[in-house]
Amino acid sequence: MKLITSARNEQLKHVSKLLSHGKARRAHGQTVLEGVHLLQACLQAGVRPIQVYVPEHKRCAGEAGALLAKLPEHCVTPVAAGVLSRISGLAQAEEVLTLIDIPAPPARPRQGDCVVLDCVQDPGNVGTIMRSAAAAGVQKLVLGQGCADAWAPKVLRAGMGAHFLLDVSECVDLAQWCAGYGGSIWATALSATNGRNLYDTDLTRPAAWVFGNEGGGVSAGLLARATGCVNIPMAGATESLNVAMAATICLFEQMRQRL
Amino acid sequence: MKLITSARNEQLKHVSKLLSHGKARRAHGQTVLEGVHLLQACLQAGVRPIQVYVPEHKRCAGEAGALLAKLPEHCVTPVAAGVLSRISGLAQAEEVLTLIDIPAPPARPRQGDCVVLDCVQDPGNVGTIMRSAAAAGVQKLVLGQGCADAWAPKVLRAGMGAHFLLDVSECVDLAQWCAGYGGSIWATALSATNGRNLYDTDLTRPAAWVFGNEGGGVSAGLLARATGCVNIPMAGATESLNVAMAATICLFEQMRQRL
């Protein structure tokens, strides 16, 4: 267990690249989890880290120490104080960084409940929707081209561990995928004037929910393939909801109808 | 209408201070709106800007140009290209910055629907909850001490104009406020194991919803003063929802029950 003392260490340079470049993540099939909470979620899901980099003073202390004690010694690398915060986006606290293989993509779902994202670009939105999907009992996530990268650090942070509860398919041709999907497909309208009222829609059967781009909503091609377009009734002067909020409302209404 | 050509201009130094320091906003009773969308929301609500700073090339063009044409000439100051992006957090696009007086706080509500925030610290969460409250028809917002500053730039951005649809009271002593409030007070549990099921709770009468700190939830003192504690049923392995998502689900369930 050799102490790393510089951000120019070859291993940390690799970690740093994975944190900032989607291309590097795809080329290596790896990503980096920032913080103890994501390490915990990954271990709980049975995913084995390739390597955990931990600030030396946290090696045996607190939450991090308790988790690291369960790992084989060759999987844990201590790093001198101040070095990890130079490469991580979590500037305030110096946190553990966990290198993992990105889980192999599952077979693309052809039935059952799914959440489908069509050009949802904001990493915070993608992560929040993943967290909501997991909390509302939907396990399959299908991301079309043009979405934020599901395994990017910001998406992982917003997902708060939901990544390890979901089957994630990325870069899917959504029009083609819709044609092969066996359940209802609900597209969501950004405004309350199009489509049918969410609360009058029977959501008790398996369905795919399609949530669209922050500015433009669900693309016309997918709207045409959907079983229907659903809107969320809203109060007076408000035009629209953030896509993550809209997704949360729809997925929890589905859950409520099935309770 | 004199062109400003430097970020060291006295007016822009003032704007820059308001953008970055809550103390300056409180001392002057002013804040700054970033972007055309917030300027539009503010004008729609009948709030008169003190001054709008606009990149010279956008002065007469596009959305910004159309809005600025409605304002008296002395309220609009053109700024040389590249200068405003040096002081604004919106680094990607060079946007209009609008200086306004923070609306005078209303009398603190003693009845009717309210959203109450107890140490909600993340600006994005406070803004998102404001947007959801407005969309769900709740107009009164009460922020306790320890919350993110409602008129901070990040909160304004996440609120997407909801600030101008709400009555916002800040720095309120919440324990004292609860004692004087006439309706039901619902505290929300962060996990699904405490309190009563949201969907089994009658939400048809006026109520105050209390949402708590991201890590710690609603403080014990407020829980003791609440009519009841409400939880949101969730799927299996998920422990909790982001506070903004939880607030959205509660407020839209209230709206649904009243449709």
From TrEMBL, chains A, B:
Chain ranges passing through the membrane: none
GO MF terms held by the record: RNA binding; RNA methyltransferase activity
Annotated tRNA/rRNA methyltransferase SpoU type domain residues: 115-252
Gene3D superfamilies, sorted: 3.30.1330.30, 3.40.1280.10
Domain (MRM3-like substrate binding): residue spans on this chain: 9-97
GO biological process, one term: RNA processing
Keyword Transferase: yes
Protein name: SpoU rRNA Methylase family protein
Lineage, opening ranks: Bacteria, Pseudomonadati, Pseudomonadota, Betaproteobacteria, Neisseriales
